[in-house]
Amino acid sequence: MKADRSFFGARFARNFGRGWLSLGYLFLYLPIVTLVLYSFNQSLQPTRWGGFTLDWYVKLASDHEILDGLWLSLKIAFLSATASVTLGTLAAFTLVKYRRFRGRTLFSGMVSAPLVMPEVIIGLSLLLMLVAVQRATGSNLVDRGLMTIWLGHLLLGMAYATVVVQARLLDLNPQLEEAAMDLGARPHQVFVLVTLPLILQALASAWLLTFSLSLDDVVVSAFLSGPGSTTMPLVIFSRARLGLNPSVNAMATVIIAIVAICVTVGSLLIARAERRRAAEISAAQRGA
Amino acid sequence: MSLHSPSHRMSCRLAGLLRGRSAVIGIPYLWLLVFFAAPFLIVLNYSLSEMGAVRPDNLMVAGDGMLRLALKYGNYLTLFSDDLYFTAYVSSLKFAAITTAVCLVVGYPFAYFMARARASLQPALLMGVMLPFWTSFLLRVYAWKGLLDEGGWVSQLLIATRLDGLLVALGMIDTAGKFMNTPFSLVIGMAYSYLPFMILPLYANLAKLDLRLLEAAADLGATRFKAFWLITVPLSRAGIVAGAMLVFIPCIGEYVIPELLGGPRTLMIGKVLWDEFFSNNDWPMASSVAVVLVLLIVVPLAIFSKVQAEAREQAR
Q1: Considering only CB atoms, which chain A residues are within 8 Å of B224?
Q2: A4: pLDDT strictly greater than 50
Q3: Which residues neighbour A264 within 8 Å (Cβ) at sequence distance 6 or greater?
Q4: Domain coordinates of chain A in residue numbers?
Q5: For B25-76, how does the pLDDT look when each residue is reduced to its tens digit (9 = 90+)?
Q6: B224 to A117: CB separation less than 8 angstroms, yes or no
Q7: How wide is the angle at C-alpha A202 spanned by C-alphas A197 and A207, nearest 5°?
């Protein structure tokens, strides 16, 4: 290499880069660290340290508003993640495998629209539709509650699931499916025996993503929840609006711990599956 | 399909309902039509109606007289004549633009240094950017309340470094030392929440940069800075636009962050829509605000999809 002509030396550039990255990560993680730290704070004043305590966790254990909300949120998140991945896989399959069908442009537009549509609009439009259905049929079938929140989260989750599964399907080696068809497999057999195992990892990460999205959603839930169906984010949001609240910090710490465990276990499992698949593929190639 | 005769097509369709292809396409299609397209048409219908008198024919424009038409578009007339709405739209765009600029200034060097880090380190660095995604967005925004409140860590740091004087001069805060419920706290909250959306496309773009181009520039006598400015930046244009739009678009309609961190001086259109619906119970007005908000998003969205399509063309 030539002599460094730049005004700043290479060493300066390297240190500057390291510094910038460290500050960036500090910025990204500082709020999470403080949330956890202040959940152990004895002082009622949220910005002053008053000594270590577990009081807030004890209080949390008997806080029925938050615990009921958490249970409801978990149920909704489980249902909406499962349905989102199912519908998202169908939608992704449609977009990748069927290049031409009537109304494809409209379809691909509608699939990705919830990704960019402000949540206030999604919540408002679904609620207005439910009200219209209620008025037209005069039934209480669509009373606001678990089902209606689930519907809203499903609309959001499906868009995200489609993106994740679609990326994996596009990555797939088409020869594998073609080989199965040449060997006489029917389309549904190809899907179940070849495609599904290959995209399983994408389905798992799509499920986790939509689960956490649903568990975190405030706006759509606010529009679609009724009396007696307050999800955990709605409880946290209404408390946070009023000011800082140590019980929210304690809840946050519990959630962060659960998420950290799930992500670690999940990525370990995914890494192991990846290694096994790579080993199998190389073994198959050696065999051939 | 079009080659088939109508009767044959009919029977095909009936049989197809039971067959794989139609079900695969049909189920998600129907679902989206019923739960995404139809609700939006209902919003459109509501937006053309008066409070308390929503009829199915509101959407249809009858040719009977000016008075009725004026009544029908009443909500939109209010929208454009009442200062509140106009100010809210403008300030939503303003805060979304400021947030995008902040994210670009912080995120570009970040993505650049990430892409130049040792190859073995890069997966871990990438994971570090994505991990905060997995913790609750709501809770991370809430955490900033504690950091920026009087006596909070960041607030103390800003006072100690005398940056609060600069922020007052920029008009981001009103009085030195008070950071909560100001434009500053709103922008910090939004920039924090959306920074990964800026970093990830930029990183994906910068990691693909052909380093030989920079070597060639150096051989031809360009300084490090000149090479960066004339080669790296233009080549990362697609990443810049993608990142900017991924930050700008969701910021426009944001509700949670302005509600928790913004103050009386930070009017955002998402919050106006919310208040119109939940406080004033004026559903038609809320619907009109929603329709105009969608129109506001269409332009940056068109830019985004154009750049994405260009990038895909180049990749081929």
Answers
A1: 4-8, 13
A2: no
A3: none
A4: 31-62+244-288, 65-230
A5: 888 888 888 888 888 888 888 888 776 555 544 444 444 444 444 456 777 8
A6: no
A7: 110
